[in-house]
Write a structure and sequence with these properties.
Blueprint: H1 5-19, H2 41-46, H3 56-63, H4 65-68, H5 86-97, H6 106-113, H7 118-128
Length: 130
Amino acid sequence: MTKAALPAACLFLLVVLSACGKKAPPGSEPVTAPASTAPEPADILAALPHDAQPYGLDVYTAKCASCHGDLAQGIGTNPGLMGMTRATMYQKLLDYRTAQARSGQPAIMAKAVAGMSAAELAAASIYAGE
């Protein structure tokens, strides 16, 4: 067997052996987090007329940058937002707005998002999320 064929053979063998394995017993399936109940942020904006869609940079600069930084890197004890997905960020903002958030600084965030529309939350999430 040549050196080039060895990795391919190993991969083939791994696939065959894993396919031949026994099924997992009932109830041993991995537990996944419940799906978000919020729609995707892009869907919120897409439902609006184009001229009524808030611009994420404007919303982020006006409402978020003073605490989370111009580049979402965080300032002082305020956390950075980098690495958070758009959907996760949008769900967290909704949770703060409805007082369901249990971590971080819920009182400050609840006040910060209280006057924001769902479209503004979505725009900020799309801008700052990955």
